[in-house]
Amino acid sequence: MVVRTVIENATRVKYKVLMPHHSFRREMRLKKRDMSVKKHKENIQISLTDFIDFVSKAGTTKFTKVKEIKNRPSYHPAFDFWKPLRERIIEIHKNNIDKSEIDEILDELTDKNKKELYPNIIKQYKSFLGRKKVEWLEPPFQDWRLGELRIKINPEIGLFIGDKPYVIKLYFKAEPLSKGKVDMILLMMENNLKKGEYEDAIFGVLDINKKRLYEKSTLTNEHLFLLEGEAMNFIKIWESI
């Protein structure tokens, strides 16, 4: 037994000594590459709006959308066009400030396009509020995860309108918001956020330009399988770029 052990140990030592250096280097390169790929995969994080835009595309335009998202510069507040107004709306509701004071943000604007587009959006939002009695409700948020993909689901505001709790995603853009997109956004919000203290909340998407609050998706949980398929497709395209 002692002799056999010595021979086996000698064989292992001999193998290690004679192992070609280039094989060792190649093995290390492969390990580093695998670690790099794994790390890269863990960082696919996009907004709900981006995902819904991707799902709404067809054919090669899906590839174009993923490429646009992947090559987009890192987020910076300076390039978030609606950020100042979005934060002002949240501020007035959180602090129970009169809606008329939303206008104060106009005096702070220096960007030409914001000066042009903000006034109408503010007017429409105040019109939507009208004489409604509202009270702030902290909105929930969560990431929807599938494989390496993380989709941020973070409605901007929560409000008690009358005595009913609402969790609302704000839509500022002038481009038409299709019913299909609304249904998918509502389905994602309801499936991921409608639980716990938000079980009885009404989830909605507010098209501010039209002063229209969309509620109750016409889709069912069965449609989530289709969205999961779209998410897998997104990942494959992302990794191919």
UniProtKB/TrEMBL annotation:
Superkingdom of the source species: Bacteria
Protein's UniProt name: Uncharacterized protein
Species the sequence originates in: Myroides odoratimimus CIP 101113
